[in-house]
Amino acid sequence: SSGLLSLVLMFLLFSLVLVFFLKKNKTVRLPPGPPALPLLGNILQLDSKAPFKSLEELSKRYGPVFMVYIGTLPVLVLCGYKAVKEALVDHGEEFSGRGEIPVTKRSTKGYGLIFSNGERWKQLRRFSLMTLKNFGMGKRSIEERIQEEAQYLVEEFRKTEELPFSPVTRINCAVSNIICSIVFGDRFDYEDKNFLKLLHMINESFKLISSGWGQLYNTFPNLMYYLPGPHNKIFENAENYKKLIPNISYCKKKKKKKQSPTQSSTCFQSGSLQEKDNPSSEFHLENLMISTSNLFTAGSETTSTTLRYGFLILLRYPHIQEKIHQEIDQVIGRNRSPAMENRMKMPYTEAVLHEIQRFLDIVPMNVPHSVIQDTQFRGYTIPKGTTVFPLLSSVLYDPDYFDSAETFNPGHFLDENGHFKKNEAFIPFSTGKRICLGEGLARMELFLFFTTLLQNFTFKSLVDPEEIDITPGLSGFGNLPRPYEFCALKR
């Protein structure tokens, strides 16, 4: 009987191999790629700590357009600015689908702005753009809200009395309060328990998705679904988040007699009333909850992480911090709040902010795309539904566009006269039809929070700057800085 069992197992394995390779070779002109194992695909060839680096290494052998298998999922990988731009911009419509990420598919069920497709995505994107536009044109502009919040953050830093502290929670609170102004029409106190609970869940989930556990789930979702492990906290947080948001919204409504007419949940509710008789409308509670989650995660976690990473880099290079101080003193002074109109007169600060975003490379593999139809691309046929990884790391570190890309150098964005210069390969918010719609908001937040804090403080490291490690502490879905503390010395 043992011999029969072995024979059956061998037959099953042979069948799986046959099906796998028949499926792989069904289309004659698929892009090249490394040989893949049945069931595992190319997962053993990827570094779990930094999978995007493994893909970039493979591109040296197979070119800027190649195929890999993540488990049994075929993935088109695009490396370098030219390939990414050609796909996402020149073939923007064909590459406008959102690729499947098992961990987010389970937690969002395909709802919300970021991970939806088709008509649902189009409706939610129009709504989100309208909300941000209306908010900016309201009684109090987004810029004024950020300026006000930046002053609250300065006060929080002053409370440390120049003693060592970690900036994580304070910066998270400040940046998230801008999203709260849009979603709830009001800000939160930095000690608010519900607010801190919400931020903790978002931060924890972002770390887990970027960890090896998140990558394991994305590779073997059908198996990991049933296994215990830290990855299950992602889905637990998603459910708790849905319960927490209505409570926060209700408390805010009780607290404020008059709601902001640009409050996004109010806009969403009015949209649902207008389209209540439209069976194809996407304005319902599930989409509201997930879209709100998308706004918080994409609009707060990424910006606060960029700021934290930026200040760590300034600790590593004190001379850069000093040059920014000089530019702030010359252009803004010490007695008025920084404003967006100052940015054009501060080329060095602007160059540093751009270089922080480039060097950090916060979402190195990009959020996956997919092709919405059979697509001819560079002589290859890409089957409809194929997941696409347009590697942002390969663009932001493209040696054809950035000299000494591996080093932190604000000179990447300065000409020989010290004037700011643009670089077409600077696309930290991606590009094409799926470009981050919060790009304008994020750029405004980065400039105003960054300059307001540096106007008021000098950041001092607790160790010799030469000892500071500015490589990511965690690299997966996102690049995250290593934990650190510093002293905020009053200027």
Brief digest:
With 491 residues, the protein is of the alpha+beta class.
Give keywords.
single chain, 491 residues, Cytochrome p450, 5-stranded mixed beta sheet, iron ion binding, transmembrane helix, microsome, transmembrane
Q: What is the CATH third-level topology name?
A: Cytochrome p450
Indicate the low-confidence ranges by residue numbers: 257-264
- Count every beta strand, where a strand is a DSSP E run of 2 or more residues: 11
The computed structural class is: alpha+beta
Mean pLDDT: 85
How many helical elements? Answer: 17
CATH class group: Mainly Alpha
**Main sheet record:** 5 strands, mixed
- CATH-wise, what's the superfamily? Cytochrome P450
In spatial order, strands of the major sheet run: 1-2-7-4-3
Domain tally: 1
Shape: globular
Strand content: 5-15%
Which H/E pattern describes the elements?
HHEEHEHHHHHHHHHHHHEEEEHHEEEE
Helix amount, in percent? 40-55%
Would you identify the CATH architecture? Orthogonal Bundle
Q: Gap between N and C termini, in Å?
A: 82 Å
Rg over CA atoms, rounded to whole Å, is 24 Å
Binding site for heme: 436
Keywords: Endoplasmic reticulum, Heme, Iron, Membrane, Metal-binding, Microsome, Monooxygenase, Oxidoreductase, Transmembrane, Transmembrane helix
GO molecular function: arachidonate epoxygenase activity; heme binding; iron ion binding; oxidoreductase activity, acting on paired donors, with incorporation or reduction of molecular oxygen, reduced flavin or flavoprotein as one donor, and incorporation of one atom of oxygen
Cofactor: heme
